[in-house]
Write a structure and sequence with these properties.
Order of helices and strands: HEEEEEEHEEEHHEEHEHEHH
Number of strands: 13
CATH superfamily: Nucleoside phosphorylase domain
Shape: globular
Structural class: alpha/beta
Number of domains: 1
CATH architecture: 3-Layer(aba) Sandwich
Number of helices: 8
Largest sheet: 11 strands, mixed
CATH class: Alpha Beta
CATH topology: Rossmann fold
């Protein structure tokens, strides 16, 4: 961590990094951001193999320069590719917390319930019944109370930026040739499932009753950890396949082909969004919402 702090101070004259990008399967098909003409090789200041944390060694990370400002970038959610675990998210957010990050943008792929392959969803809410114990453990380690309101878990300001850049790409395109994106959903409910397995058709029927739009394996714990850390959180998701039990045989075009083709357009959206964020102020209510349930001074001695 000390080398990272020194580099941020030397390169940017800063003692913290405000913004982080957590890459997922939406951009794992390209070197991000080196493959993007709007960013290029010069955008990568340094690469780090990982950092020792109370939760084990974190995943690999890049220090980026975006609009002259530092941005941290983890790929594939910081998971160990040989043995992925949602607990890896604890080490990622520990690093982000130590570096003073206040805004996090995530990209990933998902299974579509109301959306179809190649559609893009900027989620506004989520369901996760699995990750609370992990988040409670993380809160205890960093010395904060875990009870946090989860109203508007996706920051409206980050959502607006992602919507604007996604619509811009859809309308104007880029210098690179890329597969055309499908419909851009400005809202959507994300249901987090266990990592490493996919949902059953019976589970999907239950999700449909819950008015779920997309299913995935990463966002629930990331959104909760961001709120515990008083961070703004935004996520953009490309539909890679139909959820189990729906017609369409997952993805007739092939998921691997989609992953190799969606990296450019999704990467451009993320990069453009980061460029917007480094130039704007944090004017949302995310931190205030988190503080409302901090229960400062409670329980009182002798209660």
């Amino acid at each position: 961590m000390e080398k990272l702090r020194e580099m941020v101070q030397t390169e940017f004259g800063a003692d913290r990094v405000e913004i982080a990008s957590i890459g997922g399967t939406a951009t794992w098909g390209i070197p991000f951001p080196e493959k993007l003409s709007c960013a290029g090789e010069a955008s990568v200041v340094e690469r780090f193999d990982g950092f020792d944390t109370p939760f084990g060694k974190s995943g690999e990370m890049k220090l980026l320069k975006v609009g002259g400002e530092p941005v941290l970038r983890f790929h594939l959610h910081g998971w160990n590719s040989k043995k992925p675990s949602v607990e890896d998210s604890l080490s990622v957010f520990w690093v982000l917390k130590q570096m003073g990050v206040s805004q996090v943008v995530v990209d990933a792929s998902v299974g579509g319930v109301t959306a179809k392959p190649w559609d893009v969803v900027i989620a506004h809410d989520f369901i996760d019944t699995n990750s609370s114990p992990l988040v409670t453990r993380f809160a205890a380690e960093i010395g904060v109370k875990p009870w946090r309101r989860m109203v508007e878990p996706f920051c409206p300001r980050l959502r607006d930026s992602l919507i604007e850049t996604a619509e811009k790409l859809k309308k104007e395109g880029t210098e690179e040739s890329h597969h055309e994106l499908g419909q851009i959903y400005h809202r959507g409910v994300y249901h987090s499932i266990h990592l490493g397995v996919f949902e059953t058709a019976a589970e999907l029927a239950m999700y449909q009753e819950e008015k779920v739009d997309i299913v995935g394996q990463s966002t629930g714990q990331e959104a909760m950890l961001a709120r515990v850390c008083d961070m703004c959180f935004g996520g953009i998701y490309i539909v890679a396949n139909y959820a189990e039990g729906l017609p369409g045989d997952w993805n007739r075009e092939g998921m691997d082909d989609l992953y190799r083709q969606c990296g450019i357009p999704m990467g451009v959206i993320v990069w453009w969004t980061l460029e917007k964020l480094v130039k704007s102020e944090r004017t949302c209510d995310c931190a205030r919402i988190a503080e409302q349930s901090s229960h400062e001074g409670l329980p009182v001695p002798g209660a």
